[in-house]
Amino acid sequence: MDVAVQQPVLPDDITAALLDSHTYANLDLLSSTYAWLRRNMPLGIAKSRNFDPFWVVTRHADILEVSKNNKVFHNGDRATILTDRYTDLLVRYLRDGSPHLARTLAHMDDPDHRKYRALTSNWFTASNLARREEAIREIARGFIDRMIAKGNECDFVTEVAVHYPLHVIMQILGVPIEDEPLMLRLTKQVFGNLDEDLNRSGETVVTAEQGLKGLQEAVDEFFRYFDVITQDRRREPRDDLATVIAQGIVDDAPIGSFEAMSYYSLVSTAGHDTVSASMAGALLGLATHPTQFAKLREDAELISRLVEEAIRWTSPVRHFMRTATEDYTLSGQDIRKGDWLMLCYLSGNQDEAVFEDPMAFRLDRPTNKHVAFGFGGHMCLGQHLARMEMRVFFEEFLTRISHVELAGKPQHSKAVFVGGLKSLPLRFTRI
Questions:
Q1: Is 19:33 a contact under the CB 8 Å cutoff?
Q2: Which residues lie below 8 Å from residue 387, measured CB to CB, with a gap of 6+?
Q3: What pairing do the DSSP bridges indicate for beta strands 340-344 and 51-57?
Q4: Which of 5, 192, 233, 288 is the most buried (most CB within 10 A)?
Q5: Nearest CA among 415, 352, 350 for reference residue 31
Q6: Which of 372, 381, 413, 374 is nearest to 169 (CA)?
Q7: Which residues contact 297 (CB under 8 A, 6 or more apart)?
Q8: What is the CATH code for 12-430?
Q9: Structural domain spans, the chain
Q10: CA distances from 247 to 17, 239, 266, 294, 423 (A)
Q11: Are 47 and 285 in contact (CB under 8 A)?
Q12: In whole angstroms, how large is the CA radius of gyration of the chain?
């Protein structure tokens, strides 16, 4: 006779914290929640009346194991970000049964994922990006000039960090400079749909319908914009990523309209927002750890370590969801076919088993095996571009700025999926 194994169920207060967008705007609370889970229940089930049960994966090793096993743990079978039951029903109604408002690489599994990723992968190789480095450096210098023109204070997020990587990726994509404010506004509305300072309505989100309405409207506006771009690139091809997508061929047929619009939307949001968050995280780390900034100024070779530490310390992508396609044993727990798993990347990047003194911002880590870019087949397509943008920016920054400190209280966005600083007041000294 089989003996039923009791599954580890998270305490109600821990589950409530993970489901509350306000937790993600309070990094101390979020980090302490993850720390409790890693110590006491590193792989447990969250249960709530409004959500399907889901496993919360908080340890670095478990996140890696799930991430590299793409046959067992799928992206596309259910929602890829944490979604309540009612919103899931609404999305499926709007999208003819699909749990996704868009169908990007993040929503696909093989063989489709491999085929669609191949369309643009050459554009994001380190060797191909190297030829763009000088152009990116000029852009970085321009934004540092803008920062210095403010005097000795600025809000680094709103005046520099959100604009620099946006301009870089829009040049690669082929979006006119005059349309960059639109792209920035829509990105904020997609990733900040639960934050009244960033979402479409400017109001506190209190219902599923309200949150989904703003998100859907932003996605649909992206689609309308890029439909025009697609028609233009099919008539007049250019040397840009939009042309590659518009003229993409998958299985001997032109890429579908829904997939093409989704592809554009992925590049035009994730292609800059996560870099912005990591850059702001780097400046927050340097401003609050002056000894680290002093070390950096003494040895510019530490810039590469700064980049990796900022990405780890910030971890802009808070989570992705996966769905088990078969029964699987993970760290002694029985995952059943159809189970939903939440991969908590920030927690993995704070795992004491991997990172010494994980809450500290340190440039002396000999290795930095963070999972901020994911792992396995779904590892971030733009990781080389992100690293280059940050490296180039801080190479130029160190030649112009000798000191940074906080000039006000930093504020984080209320974002359960992709988040970071929405305000970082800085005071700085020019060289």
A1: no
A2: 307
A3: parallel
A4: 192
A5: 350
A6: 381
A7: 398, 402
A8: 1.10.630.10
A9: 12-430
A10: 45, 12, 17, 49, 39
A11: no
A12: 21
pLDDT digits (tens, 9 = 90+) for 236-282: 999 999 999 999 999 999 999 999 999 999 999 988 899 999 999 99
Q: Kindly report the pTM of this predicted structure.
A: 0.94
pLDDT (tens digit per residue) in 404-431 = 999 999 999 999 999 999 999 999 999 9
Which among 301, 297, 276 has a CA at the least distance from the CA of 415?
A: 276
Q: How far apart are CA 382 and CA 124, in angstroms?
A: 6
In SS3 terms, the chain reads as CCCCCCCCECCHHHHHHHHCHHHHHCHHHHHHHHHHHHHHCCEEEEEECCEEEEEEECCHHHHHHHHHCCCCEECCCCCCCCCCHHHHHHHHHHCCCCCCCCCCHHHCCCCHHHHHHHHHHHHHCHHHHHCCHHHHHHHHHHHHHHHHHCCCEEEHHHHHHCCHHHHHHHHHHCCCHHHHHHHHHHHHHHHCCCCCCCCCCCCCCCCHHHHHHHHHHHHHHHHHHHHHHHHHHHHCCCCCHHHHHHCCEECCEECCHHHHHHHHHHHHHHHHHHHHHHHHHHHHHHHHCHHHHHHHHHCHHHHHHHHHHHHHHHCCECEEEEEECCCEEECCEEECCCCEEEEEHHHHCCCCCCCCCCCCCCCCCCCCCCCCCCCHHHCCCCHHHHHHHHHHHHHHHCCCEEEEEECCCCEECCCCCECCEEECEEEEEEC
Measured in degrees and rounded to the nearest 5, phi and psi for residue 342 equal -105, 115
Q: What is the pLDDT of residue 3?
A: 45
d(CA 114, CA 230) in angstroms, rounded, equals: 22
> What are the average pLDDT values for consecutive 10-residue runs of the chain, which has 431 residues?
70 97 96 98 97 98 97 97 94 94 96 97 92 96 95 96 96 95 90 82 76 87 94 95 96 94 92 94 98 96 97 97 98 98 98 97 93 95 96 98 97 95 97 91
Distance CA(356)–CA(383), nearest Å, equals: 24
Beta strands at 153-155 and 425-430: parallel, antiparallel or unpaired: antiparallel
Query: What pLDDT sits at residue 207?
Result: 73
Q: List Cβ<8 Å contacts ≥24 apart for 207-212.
A: 208/84, 208/86, 208/87, 208/90, 209/90, 211/87, 212/87, 212/90, 212/91
CA distance 57 to 69: 14
- Give me the pLDDT at residue 271, please: 84
Give 88's Cβ-side CA count (13 Å radius). 13
